[in-house]
Amino acid sequence: MENDSTAPFLLGGSSCGVLLLHGFTSTPQSVRYVGHRLHARSGATVMAPLLAGHGTTPEDFAQTGFRDWLKSAEDALEALSARCTTICVAGLSLGGTIALNLSIRRGDLVDRVATINGSTGLYSPQQMKAFFDGCTGDFQPGIGSDIKNPGYKETCYDRIPNAVTQERYVLVTATGQMLPLLDKPLLILQSRTDHVVSPENGKRIEGAVASRSITFCWLENSYHVATLDNDRDLIVQELTNFLTAE
């Protein structure tokens, strides 16, 4: 099945390119369905890389940090820009955070940006307490597969190295502080119920950026991994519309 593989993928199409980024501890499996459907509906070229340290073992993951994850995404962005004349960077969860980050730091290559349950450093008190409670060992329990639909499962690590959890906090918090520098057309897709990233992040993004064109869409029937959940086709529709919006 096209939505089962954890491998990166490239779907050749038009001169409009979409860089589609998976989330923390996950793989391109989590965005494969949306990527294939978006390609079929819009004709866009869609690229989904595998971020450094992902798709192997938690021990490998522990040897990486936010600089490595950003480099993976930035290398893919440069490769896609060599094929396409316009670029939309989109991502789920940490992939959404990285999409925001690249749209600010590499605005020369990015025309549009879309975030799906992206984090900007707003966490619930319970999540922060769990972070400190889990710092006594080398690993914390995994946070993947927060999906409302019981028929779908995310392929991700079941353990998270504490070292990379700290790297994630640096990346999401710093990106949140840079949001006023973002001036690209922006699509925000936010699950109303999310057990991993606080839904407040969506409104924080909307209120902080300098973008003149912002589309905000609540996902009412999905949890965090919305690209594999009940609203996955709505996400495809919103992304397709966003690519052609004035």
TrEMBL record:
Keywords: Hydrolase
Domain of life: Bacteria
Residues marked Important for substrate specificity (site): 143
Annotated ranges, domain AB hydrolase-1: 18-200
Active site residues of this protein: 93, 194, 224
InterPro entries reported for this sequence: AB_hydrolase_1, AB_hydrolase_fold, Esterase_lipase
Gene Ontology molecular-function annotations: carboxylic ester hydrolase activity
Name of the molecule in the record: Alpha/beta fold hydrolase
Source taxonomy: Bacteria, Pseudomonadati, Pseudomonadota, Alphaproteobacteria, Rhodobacterales
